[in-house]
Specification:
The complex is a heterodimer.
Chain A: H1 2-12, H2 15-33, H3 39-46, H4 55-80, H5 89-100, H6 104-137, H7 142-158, H8 164-177, H9 204-220, H10 224-228, H11 245-254, H12 256-271, H13 277-291, H14 304-327, H15 333-344, H16 353-356, H17 358-381, H18 383-389, H19 394-413, H20 417-434, H21 440-462, H22 468-471, H23 473-494, H24 499-518, H25 523-544
Chain B: H1 3-25, H2 40-62, H3 82-96, H4 98-118, H5 125-147
The chains are: A mainly alpha, B mainly alpha.
Chain lengths: 562, 161
């Protein structure tokens, strides 16, 4: 193991790789700082550059973009009140008032260092948890994988906010897009309608860039006047902002419980398939407010309101990487793209990924660690550059980026057909966006569709008995969680206002306890007993309180996938 | 078009799409190997899509007000899509002219025209837009061609590879 770690160290710390990571972090910081320019989009645009690189170099660069993007989102959130990425929505609640209150340097310092520490906590968990999770993953058969993918798909739809039905339709559309072309199992052409080009199906990258980047850019320049305006108005800050590092670090250490709690929320959310930083930052903010002795001060510009979302969104990255590496299931849209990148480099993440590719796996761990140190350095050094980029009118950025998209997409297979696919999905994404369809479920559908079909086929070829999906413990576990995740939006909306919501968590705990009893060994049944005990306690507590609920509409935080 | 009509229309279009594709799924070759036929998974997906589309149809009829329009939609006629239509038209032309112009000239042309049509309509900005187009596309073309060794398409007008 030590050999592999040392080898990975030498790979990651190579000068060329360090340069690539620095460029990646800087690109991520810039992308994160630009409102409307998501991290997923930045990763997608980076992907073509990694074709000519080794897997370690390519992955390290993308991890740099990932970490940089998560931290860069706080820039615009704090300076303008517009979150650069959905991962920084909650950061604006207190970051913007604090910056506007004359302390932009302190606010940025809190954000930057919270991101750093949150990321480090997550990196430690990544190193310690990923191998264990991989061992559990070895128990998975095709039935369990299929149910896991089903869970991933349901949680995506359930996170579609008010557009639940449209989110589910989007997910199904993504699955359908994945069926076009020759299927992986029998090699038979499907839905090609006699068009030769369609036999190879739709490559992941053109679909991704078309749906996300193309349609997003056109949405950003839709307004004729706004398209010609600079991205940000920094008149309030005079363009002179200096990060207050020491004061920020002292403040964060004095609130270490908030930091640790928020980081753990971030890791947990990241591990869940499809639940990314856009959810974790709001959850962490909500929990920090609930735990605070002065919750009424939240929203006025207090440090706790910045520490919570910023540490949690960076921690989410580590959690998402755990699931991607150990199970081959993307934790969020960004890791879905990274999963695609691994596949392009002929690396298939799976439970045996860490044991089969230890050099690459440890290189990813180390790169994730290192990216946070580079992020701190680059955040401080290139602050002025970010301010310059954010002064460029949106229409200039859009035109140039679209040209880059075409070049990048062509580089994938060296065929012009891919640029046509980009164009087609650019149009489709724009229309779907206008019609209120969330686009993230489509991407996850495209990525997960192949995995689902492959495992369903494998499962049926081993045994055609469909009851195995219910009788195998891990499969049942994921199906139970999937069922509850479908009901989650209603629970979230009505929590504490309807009596059934009081039984939601106890029912979930009891539900997942059942497959725990079916599993081998001693530990898991004991966990099952503990879950049942907690479930019974929660029910008893609610019964003792007379199943009291608050009036409808009394919600502190409303989560909505952006 | 009202929200009720719009979502109802979307659902109907989706249902027609599902019907056409479901019909097409019966044309998929049947093999005598493999346990699961190639048409099974697409049919499962189409059934799921049909169910959700019916759900959207029902929702648009029963609770039309709960279906929110995209926040990005702005009032106005077709003019509100002016910028998007310009970009799509230019990108389409860029693709059509790729054989003639190649990636470098075509890319420069696309960026220049997009900047000129989307930006402020003044003559003094034209040189600036041209400079941006040449510099940005040129840099990216050079990175891919010389740095990453990707042979980007050459046009009939200018052959550099």
């Amino acid at each position: 193991m030590l050999d592999h770690i040392l080898y990975a160290f030498s790979d990651v710390f190579a000068v060329w790789n360090l340069a690539l990571m620095t460029i990646g972090v800087t690109a991520g910081l810039i992308a994160g700082a630009i409102p409307g320019f998501t991290i997923a989009m930045a990763i997608v645009l980076t992907l073509p550059f990694t074709f000519g690189l080794s897997p370690v170099e390519g992955l390290a660069t993308m991890i740099g973009v990932f970490v940089g993007g998560l931290s860069g989102g706080l820039m615009s959130g704090m300076l303008t009140g517009i979150p650069g990425t959905p991962s920084s929505i909650a950061t604006t609640f207190d970051g913007f008032p604090l910056a506007r209150g004359g302390k932009p340097g302190f606010a940025l310092g809190l954000g930057v260092w919270s991101s750093f520490f949150g990321g480090l906590i997550s990196a430690v968990l990544l190193v310690t948890l990923a191998p264990s999770l991989a061992v559990i993953g070895l128990e998975f058969g095709p039935w369990d994988y299929f149910s896991l993918v089903l869970f991933a798909l349901t949680i995506t739809a359930s996170l579609s906010g008010e557009n639940l039905m449209k989110g589910m339709i989007a997910g199904a559309l993504g699955l359908f897009i994945g069926t076009v072309g020759e299927d992986e199992v029998n090699g038979v052409a499907r839905f090609t309608f006699g068009i030769d080009d369609l036999e190879s199906g739709f490559s992941f990258l053109p679909v991704l860039i078309g749906l996300f980047a193309f349609s997003q850019l056109l949405s950003d320049i839709q307004d004729r006047v706004k398209a010609r305006e600079p991205l940000m108005d920094l008149s309030g800050t005079d363009g002179r902002v200096r990060v207050e590092h020491l004061a920020a670090i002292r403040t964060i250490f004095s609130r270490w419980t908030n930091l640790v709690r928020s980081s753990l929320i971030g890791v947990f959310t990241g591990v869940l398939p499809a639940a990314g930083g856009s959810i974790s930052n709001i959850l962490a903010y909500d929990q920090a407010k609930k735990a605070s002795k002065t919750p009424e001060k939240f929203g006025t510009g207090i440090p706790d309101g910045i520490i919570a979302p910023e540490s949690s969104n960076n921690a989410t990255a580590g959690g998402a990487l755990i699931t991607m590496m150990a199970l081959g299931i993307p934790g969020d849209i960004v890791t879905a793209v990274m999963l695609g990148a691994l596949l392009i480099h002929n690396v298939q993440p799976s439970p045996t990924f860490i044991s089969d590719n230890p050099d690459l796996a440890y290189a990813i761990f180390i790169a994730f660690f290192l990216a946070h140190f580079i992020m701190i350095a680059m955040q401080s050094v290139t602050l002025k550059l970010f301010l310059l980029v954010t002064r460029i009118p949106m229409y200039v950025l859009a035109a140039v980026i679209l040209a880059y998209c075409a070049i990048g997409v062509f580089a994938l297979n060296n065929i012009v057909y891919d640029i046509w696919v980009l164009f087609f999905f650019g149009v489709a994404g724009y229309i779907l966006r206008l019609l209120g369809f969330p686009l993230a479920p489509i991407i996850l559908g495209v990525v997960l569709g192949h995995v689902a079909e492959l495992n369903l086929s494998r499962a049926l070829s081993i045994d055609s008995d469909l009851m195995l999906f219910l009788s195998r413990p891990w499969s049942l576990f994921f199906l139970v969680v999937a069922a509850f995740s479908i009901a989650f939006p209603w629970y979230q909306k009505l929590r504490g206002t309807q009596s059934w919501t009081l039984a939601y968590v106890p029912a979930l705990l009891a539900g997942v306890a059942v497959p725990m009893f079916m599993m081998e060994g001693v530990v898991r049944p004991i966990i099952g007993v503990a879950l049942l005990a907690v479930s019974a306690y929660l029910l008893w507590r609610s019964a003792k309180a007379g199943w009291k609920v608050a009036p409808e509409g009394d919600h502190e935080v409303h989560l909505e996938e952006t | 078009m009202g929200r009720l009509n719009r979502d109802t229309l979307i659902a109907l279009v989706l249902l027609v799409f599902c019907g056409v594709m479901f019909s097409a799924s019966f044309e998929i070759e049947v093999t005598n190997y493999g346990t699961m036929q190639s048409s099974v998974w697409p049919q499962v997906v189409l059934v799921v899509l049909t169910v959700f589309s019916l759900g959207l149809l029902g929702q648009s009829i029963v609770k039309p007000r709960t279906v929110e329009a995209s926040a990005e939609a702005v009032p106005g006629g077709l003019g509100r899509f002016r910028n998007a239509l310009i970009v799509y038209a230019l990108f389409f032309l860029f693709l059509l002219s790729l054989d003639l112009l190649g990636m470098l000239l075509g890319g420069i042309g696309f960026v220049f025209l997009a900047l000129t049509l989307l930006g402020e309509p003044s003559l003094k900005r034209v040189p600036l837009h041209l400079l941006i187009a040449v510099a940005m596309v040129g840099i990216m073309w050079s990175i891919f061609t010389f740095g990453l060794g990707v042979l980007l398409p050459d046009g009939e007008l200018l052959q550099l590879n």
